Amino acid sequence: MSAVKVKRIASGWEKVFNVVLLIGIAALVIPFVKWAIIDAQFAGTERCTNSGACWVFIKLRLQSFMFGFYETAELWRPILVLLLWAVSIVSLFKVSYGRALRVLPFILLGMPLFSWGLLDGRWFGLSHVETTRWGGLMLSLMITLMGLSFAFPIGLLLALGRMSKLPLIKAGSIAFIELWRGVPLITVLFMSSVMLPLILPPGSEVDKLFRVLVGVALFTSAYLAEVIRAGLRGVPSGQAEAAMALGLSGPQRLFLVVLPQALRSVIPSLVNSFISLFKDTSLVIIVGMFDLLGMVQQANTDSYWLGYATEGYLFAGLVFWVICFALSRFSLKLEKAHA
Length: 339
Prior knowledge:
This protein is mostly helical and about 350 residues long. It is globular, with a radius of gyration of 25 Å. Helix 2 packs across helix 12. It is built from 13 helices and no strands. It folds into 2 domains: about 1-40; about 55-335, MetI-like (MetI-like fold, Orthogonal Bundle). The model has no long low-confidence stretch (mean pLDDT about 85).
């Protein structure tokens, strides 16, 4: 058989496959659009009586999905905290590296402390809102942002420690990294929230969310250490040698020459770590905390709204997808800006 005939046959089969694929997609999409939009109910305050989706359930539960059980009169606090986080992160990548280096300690240390203090309330003389009332998307974002803020400096030290020529420091860093990378996050959360109180002195008590944050930070730092180490390895040795020839000290060589190039090369991996941790926050439900997905599951137990789990899970999945997609696009813009 000639090559021309083979190409024609292959092209014919491709057309058949494309037609079948389009029919299959249409068979799935059309009923979904009919259920989700055409026959759906968007207005009202009671149970839906239509055959389509009941988005009234999402509308009435939206506040709890976003902020958990946080006091309605105090919602300005989590909104302000999230806005400040967004401004801080965007500003960090908009300013020059020198300014970013000066702002970074505030973001890594100041923002988590400010966020905790404002949301808790007692540090600023506001009404106290217990961490057990924090929930929804706010809790997912707070665990992600605070966890990464604490994990990044630890991961940087571990990466440098693993590259150290001192055997004890190198061995300790390797042991820490491999230990935490070899344990599932769900086990870390269980140990920090359930097992840790059993070994604490009698009468001592540590906030559950704080224990979760410590476990998340240590777990994430092990992965960030390997990401940062890969970036440091990718910087040509001539860069550090040139900086040494200019008379720069060790910390100056690291922070002014080597680290900027290393972090620039691992931006996709760092953003991927952020996305992965954000999605993993759904695991906190096993320790009795209600993130976005946990609040959806809790709402599904309401006897008045039974039967609307599909709408709740679709909403949660859409929120996770939008945030993760926005982060991936932001990562691409950063790559192009620093290329």
